[in-house]
Amino acid sequence: MAIVSFLQKFMQEPALFLGIIAMAGFLILRERVERTIAGTLRTALGLLILSSGVNLMVQALLPLGDLAGKTLGLPPLKIDIGTSKIIADFGTQIGLVMLFAFLINVFLARITKLKYIYLTGHLIFWNAVIFVSAFRYLLGLEGAALLIVTSIFVGLYQTLQPWYTSKFDLFVNENAGFVLGHSSSIPVLVTSLLTRLFSANGTKKARSMEEIQFPKALGWLREPMLMMAATFLVIYILMALANVPFVTEKAAAAGKDPAIWVILQALTFAAGFAILMMGVRMIIAELIPSFKGIAEKIVPGAIPALDCPLFFPYGQVSMAYGGLIGMLSMMVVSILFAGFKYPYFIFAPTMSAWFHGATAAVYGNKYWGIPGAILGGVVAGALMGLGQAAMWPFIGFAIGDFFSWASDTDYVIWPLLIAVVSRILGR
To answer: How many CB atoms lie within 10 A of CB 244?
Structure first.
């Protein structure tokens, strides 16, 4: 159990996890010592830099989600168990699922044509948490049955998810040597299929969002970091004016003047994005070459499945607008459910909505230009809200708090299928 606990904690640290993967690849390739050390450190540092950027973006987005929820008058959360208690009660099972699922993924990549190895370390942890919860509370599995079934399911998911998006991944990143390993795969898949259909497989592509021309005075909006800073500043100001007491409270807790706090939130989001992109460039430069060693010796033909921000460089303008459109679409779905007096808290969070919308928009733009990028953001926001609404009656009592801040589409769509199976079995 001590070993399992250490492995669980190790795999929860994406920087260490990817650093070891990179080092193994360089050693297998028999690279020089200095190249191995430098490549390993750059990979780990790149992931830490990327994560730092994401954390800054999340810190800036979470209060915006609270502001939106208050503005929409959403009902309060009603949770009986909660994600933290599930992690505490099933920590051993979660750690074992992480380990066994990863081994199943590598084994399947070795013996089948599905040569994708899921390397998004923090999501390996959340995959285990969410599906342990689903199989425990939807199918009522316990003990060995819970461990075995969840390990197999997560292992298959981490093998199949990169496979069913791989064709689109490699088109978007121009065969850069990696595919998507992320819980935003459903909107990516739906967006890619729709935009490929509407654009006749890319042959009727509309003007790319990356080519948008602004008036000279607004030319600075072409730079994603500046555009995001300006856009989120406007959004924050509007939300703050509608919720002055809440903003005053938040600003006081941070020791800031309310107006200054609002400005800093918007600028922090943009700064986080700039840091994230620095980390992305480091990972691509080091991890992909090192992975050739694993592909040559351990799993011939293996392709790493990596986090969604690694696709942002392939459509930075569409990514920026797509994230915003995803958030707006999310809010529209929330308003509709609130208007129909839906009894559950339906608010796909701004954090996930931005990242999912941004990712889907990059794919949509690649196939169908501006209409595709817009469609990607809409698809992401709509699927998140609708999926959350469908899941709340089944498992919201257990992990509804997770939905409130990270309602990733794969974490509501796939558990929904498990819920359907449970109903068929009469559970």
So the answer is: 10
- How much is the pLDDT for 348? 61
Distance CA 311, CA 313 (A): 6
Residues 19-62 pLDDT 10s: 998 999 999 999 999 999 999 999 999 989 998 998 899 888 88
Strand order in the sheet with 179-180: 116-118, 303-306, 179-180
Q: If 0-12 CB within 10 Å is exposed, 13-18 middle and 19+ buried, where does residue 172 land?
A: buried
Q: What percent of the chain has pLDDT over 90?
A: 59
Q: Which residue type occupies 76?
A: P
> What HEC string does 212-241 produce?
CCCCHHHHHHHCHHHHHHHHHHHHHHHHHH
What's the CA gap between 5 and 9, in Å, rounded?
A: 6
Distance between CA atoms of residues 234 and 238, nearest Å: 6
pLDDT greater than 70 at residue 349: no
- What are the Cα distances from residue 309, in Å, to 20, 47, 50, 260, 359? 21, 11, 8, 29, 8
pLDDT tens per residue across span 14-23:
788 889 989 9
8 Å CB contact between 404 and 355: no
DSSP-derived letter for residue 209 is G
Q: Write out the DSSP string of 106-150.
A: HHHHHHSS--EEE--HHHHHHHHHHHHHHHHHTS---HHHHHHHH
